Amino acid sequence: MSNRLLHETSPYLLQHAHNPVDWYPWGEDALTKARAENKPILVSIGYSACHWCHVMERESFEKEEVAAVMNAYFVCIKVDREERPDVDAIYMDALHAMGGRGGWPLNVFLMPDAKPFYGVTYLPPQNWVQLLKSVKNAFDNHHDELVKSAQGFTENMLIKESDKYDLEGSEGVFSVDDLHEMFEKMKQHFDTEKGGMDRAPKFPMPSIYKFLLRYHALTQHPEALRQVELSLNRIALGGIYDHVGGGWARYSVDDEWFIPHFEKMLYDNGQLLSIYAEAYALTKNELYKNRVYETIAWLEREMLSPDGGFYSALDADSEGIEGKFYIWTQAELESILGEDFGWFSKLYHTRAAGNWEHGYNHLHLTSPLELQKVEQSEYQKSLNKLFEARQRRIRPGLDDKTLASWNGLILKGLTDAYRVFGEESFKELALNNAHFLKNKMTHDNHQLWHSYKNGKATIVGFLEDYAAVIDGYIGLYEATFEESWLDEALQLTAYTVENFYDTDEALFYFTDATATDLIARKKEIFDNVIPASNSMMAHNLYLLGTLFDYGDYVKLADWMLSKMKRALLTDVQWATNWAALYALRSQPTAEIAIVGPEAEQYRQAFESRYFPNKIIVGTTTTSDLPLLQQRTAQNNLTTLYVCFNKTCQLPVHDIEAAWKQLNHP
To answer: Count H helices, E strands: the chain?
Structure first.
């Protein structure tokens, strides 16, 4: 038996294609059926690497008796939240309005007009069937109350974000004093022993570290750097990192960074490449460099499609057991490592009874000093043995769709890694990925697609796609000085302003004006593990406005940032990508122009030191870019121009002289 999901491209939907549940994909067919038959709708939302989504499928959706109840009472719709983040955002918002705690699987019950009236996350089968019957009873016997309730939740979603969160723009000044206040508020939530924030589970939060790095660059505040280093060390050493194969899992279930939820997502790894490369430029910590190189090796080996795009995720489960691919019995370790087992077991605190559960060990360190005590070539040889042994295991499932937004984050991560380390293979990977995004996921009219699989791009792009891809293209220009990537970024930005911008609120909608209407058109403004698409667009507008001397773009970025000021000063930890932009805007941005035959070598020399508040442009000949106009290589020597606020200092020919101008404008 199969259902209507059989012809979908999403791996998550295809996992459910042979359920006895009569699933529909999200779309007009399901919504029309619900209206025509006056049946409530069940929307069940998840993603392919979600452990509890698999559990609920196994316990409920694969069971004939449970499916019979679902099919009789509801029009059932399955949604991949990664393919349809717009649908997920609306119904997750509804669940929060109902007082529920968010998470996946997300199961929301709708009236036939798609307005939500009740929602839950995971339930075991007996509770699930009981709920299905209760909801059906309420729909039949308390219909008017449900209509009223659904209308209330929908009206709540239609409230403008500016009204809901009291956002007011201004022509205000961005001050360092405000940044001090943000830091002091954030500091109250630091875990100063284990890194990260004072809660569990622990998620890597790249935009928090990005803000702290920029704040430290501006103020030299020692606590900011100490917290960044503590967090990055623990995330690099803990069990959340795959010591054998590279790459980070999505989060740690405990507060020790020990046992991850073993799924590996593209979006975490792209952002962490950027953060670790940036932190290396500041600290020169070799651990950070190693993690960048190992993670890029994993991405190229396991996540790269033949087309040049990167796949979305690796599942947490293999053989039906969470983490089985990554964990070891003591006997396995001893057999594989032989004479190296003793010191390796001591290093990683493995035990015969296991250091985790069910007799299994997971590789986990806490201090850089632990690694310094072992001979590095022997250490690497042991990890290689484990890698070879692990390659023979049954692999976790691969979510092989390619998302424009997550590829934009990877593209930015690769360009940041190349700019810091100068590794040519990183640049080639980035260029390959950018050509894929341009050729396979972009319309002729500079409209992006969101998802790509089996040679076909589908789903009209969301704001997150434009924001991340534009950011990646800007990074690629700064890494290569190839101006075609700036042109692409500018054209995508023009499309975004035309089709996503809300002039009433001076913010961007999440969905394209040309996309299918949902019951509400939302805006994403608060940063989480992935920065909000509006905060990313504000960064893009500021950078492009400066690069092209588009005053309107800079003005819009500043207005958007000013609207978030109250949120920044109230609870900054949910607006840290905005705060990173605030740190840039509180001081003039350095504009560095490099002209002449050695422009690339000079660029690399500049990138070897840490100075985040800069824009670098360059050419070996001449360019029409505003920051390069009338800039020449004097006396046929590569020449550097350091400018602030369109005011330039005397041209110089060596890096040290330019650095002095940067630090003493």
So the answer is: 27, 21
